[in-house]
Amino acid sequence: MLSASLFMQAGLLLVGYFVFTLFCYRKVIVAKWQTHKQRNAKTLIAYASESGSGKKLAHELHTELKTQGDLALCLTLNQVTEQQLNQTDTLLIIASTYGEGEAPDNGRHFLDKLSKLKSTLSHLNYAVLALGDREYSQYCQFGLALNQALKSKLCKPLFEPILVNKLDENSINEWNSNLLSKGLLKQAVPRSMLSATHPPIQQLKLTDRQQVNINSPGAPLFEINLAVPSGLTWQAGDIARLHIQDTVREYSIASVPQEQSLKLLVREQKHPSGELGLGSGWLCHQADLNSTQAFSIRANTKFNPLGMHKKLILIGNGSGLAGLRGHLKHREIKQHHENWLLYGERCAEHDLPWHRELTEWFNAKHLTEIDLAFSRQSTNSNIKVGRCHSGYVQDAMLAQQTKLKDWVNNGAAIFICGSLQGMAKDVESMLLDILGEPVLSRLERQGLYRKDVY
Ligand SMILES: Cc1cc2nc3c(=O)[nH]c(=O)nc-3n(C[C@H](O)[C@H](O)[C@H](O)COP(=O)(O)OP(=O)(O)OC[C@H]3O[C@@H](n4cnc5c(N)ncnc54)[C@H](O)[C@@H]3O)c2cc1C
Ligand SMILES: Cc1cc2nc3c(=O)[nH]c(=O)nc-3n(C[C@H](O)[C@H](O)[C@H](O)COP(=O)(O)O)c2cc1C
């Protein structure tokens, strides 16, 4: 009897020791399992996606492959390594195009990596699903560039790239049927994707519209306010989508739901004929007060607030102040007060939207630093906050480079909002000059470098 209980105790001790050892080595075990999976994965799904549709399609395909028992990996294009390319049989790429025919951020290093490979990849079968929008002159250009680059490495196309205009369902079905006919899929991928991508559309009422840059040398800029129906919610950094004449125009949301108004900052745009732009024309001029139009909200996780409190450097120009204001308002509510705004516009006399609110935030030390850059000299200015610079926002960054480095060294995150061509590219190359590539890459990896640029 005694000996049986002793055996039991010894057994329990052993089991306890075993569980404890597993617990201590859990990270090593998980890492080993991941490496094993990666080594044995024969199919690699790689995506490059900015607003998430490509990512979603890639994950759905991944789930389907796993369900049918295949060893498959799903990564962003930037994460794909040379070793993985060498070990994989099949590469399935889902890539959207951004900027003017460029890669989304999470795919922008891949072509360079591929061009630097010393060996060819003649063992690799591949297919490309290129997401894009025919309204852009460089239609699906990044997907097409990937196809060319893979061909030049002697990879074998399973079929020609499939170009998808505005997530057209027929083209996505064609991609799935091609994967079926090549034996990569054993059954069609459930079509949950498209409905899940499109959030519900609601009629929102225009309650107020004010031009915020009267007499500016630039095109008129308007603050637009829309009534918020009950149940409609969003996070700072999300995007409002105006559905108009069978098409969509996106606008950064400048407010938070607690303000009970969905606020936008919209630049009037005109075609060379003088005709008003479709979306901006409606918002800035044609819509009557109290009229309604169809809107939906697009979650924009890559530009949502950080999950923790950090100092924040907010950089933008023109209508990009919209996305930055959303964050400032969110942080005011959260009482996260160490904020630095660097903002560029044309002239100090007429071009500082929300001047009064920025001044109040500055006086209340919610905004601890403000640097404003104006590209046109003006003799007169009512601006009483922060430092004014002549030139562009990147010139203000250069003038403040020591402080900028200090903030980043003290854990600050950097958020950028505004035009891609007119600002974000120059801002990014200035950040590279000031902080260096390793620091900017680290911030990006840690989710501390976020952009909403268009
Ligand atoms: C994520 C995101 C966020 C955005 N946030 C904002 C924001 O906060 N505020 C904001 O104002 N905008 C924002 N935009 C831009 C906005 O979505 C629209 O692109 C903008 O309002 C112009 O649309 P439109 O319908 O008024 O003009 P469109 O009718 O689409 O015309 C756009 C412009 O294209 C040019 N163009 C069109 N046709 C021709 C032609 N034949 N020849 C030469 N040029 C031509 C003209 O310059 C014209 O003004 C954002 C875009 C994105 C993607
Ligand atoms: C700012 C911006 C720039 C874009 N540029 C292009 C382009 O140059 N060529 C193209 O075909 N599509 C372009 N698109 C359309 C996107 O590629 C398309 O909406 C795609 O479905 C987005 O997929 P994602 O959600 O995976 O990023 C652009 C979209 C935006 C918002």
Could you characterize what this model shows?
The chain is α/β, with parallel strands linked by helices and 454 residues long. The chain folds into three domains: 31-197, 3-Layer(aba) Sandwich (Rossmann fold), CATH 3.40.50.360; 202-301, Translation factors (Elongation Factor Tu (Ef-tu), domain 3, Beta Barrel), CATH 2.40.30.10; 305-453, Rossmann fold (3-Layer(aba) Sandwich). It is 37% helix and 25% strand. The chain has 15 helices and 18 strands. Strands 1, 2, 3, 4, 5 and 6 form a six-stranded parallel beta sheet that branches. Strands 10-9-12-7-8-11 form a six-stranded antiparallel beta sheet. It has a six-stranded parallel beta sheet with strand order 16-15-14-13-17-18, with helices on both faces. Strand 4 (125-132), helix 6 and strand 5 form a beta-alpha-beta unit. Helix 14 (420-435) crosses helix 15 (437-445). It is globular, with a radius of gyration of 26 Å. The protein starts with a helix and ends with a strand. 36% of the residues are buried. The mean pLDDT is 92. Flavin mononucleotide binds next to helix 3 and strand 4.
Which characteristics define this entry?
454 residues; Rossmann fold; 25% strand; 6-stranded antiparallel sheet; binds flavin mononucleotide; alpha/beta; 3 domains; Elongation Factor Tu (Ef-tu), domain 3; binds flavin-adenine dinucleotide; 18 strands
